[in-house]
């Protein structure tokens, strides 16, 4: 079970990382602008690379504890982008607004999942 949870987390992170390169415009639009220097595309690609690196660390048993801790940090770090998305989507349909706001509490189980993977890997 431990390996399955870790590999599933690695798969989720891999899919997210690949998405940053496959559909970068979506991610560019949710990059919080004022506090971050550089272009949104830079941050889209940087966060995609980070997700892929964290995925690799979580997938490998030797680096899994550190990778899972990095996943926690990543999930916390991207929270402001999810808040920006929810605020920016206030003019969208009710369904799209529900998706945007619904993503915010989903960060909690993602963090707990990564912490469990870390705990199980130690």
From TrEMBL:
Domain of life from the UniProt record: Bacteria
UniProt keyword list: Membrane, Signal, Transmembrane, Transmembrane helix
Transmembrane segments: 66-83
Statement: the UniProt record of this protein carries the keyword Membrane: yes
Protein name: DoxX family protein
Organism: Pseudonocardia broussonetiae
First and last residue of the signal peptide: 1-21
């Amino acid at each position: 079970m431990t390996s399955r949870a870790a590999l599933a987390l690695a798969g989720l992170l891999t899919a997210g990382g690949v998405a940053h390169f496959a559909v970068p415009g979506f991610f560019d639009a949710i990059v919080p602008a004022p506090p971050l220097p550089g272009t949104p595309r830079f941050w889209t690609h940087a966060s995609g690379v980070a997700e892929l690196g964290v995925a690799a660390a979580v997938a490998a048993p030797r680096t899994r504890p550190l990778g899972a801790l990095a996943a926690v940090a990543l999930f916390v770090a991207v929270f402001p982008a999810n808040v920006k998305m929810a605020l920016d989507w206030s003019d969208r349909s009710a369904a799209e607004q529900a998706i945007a706001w619904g993503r915010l509490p989903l960060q909690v189980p993602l963090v707990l999942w990564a912490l469990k993977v870390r705990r199980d890997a130690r």
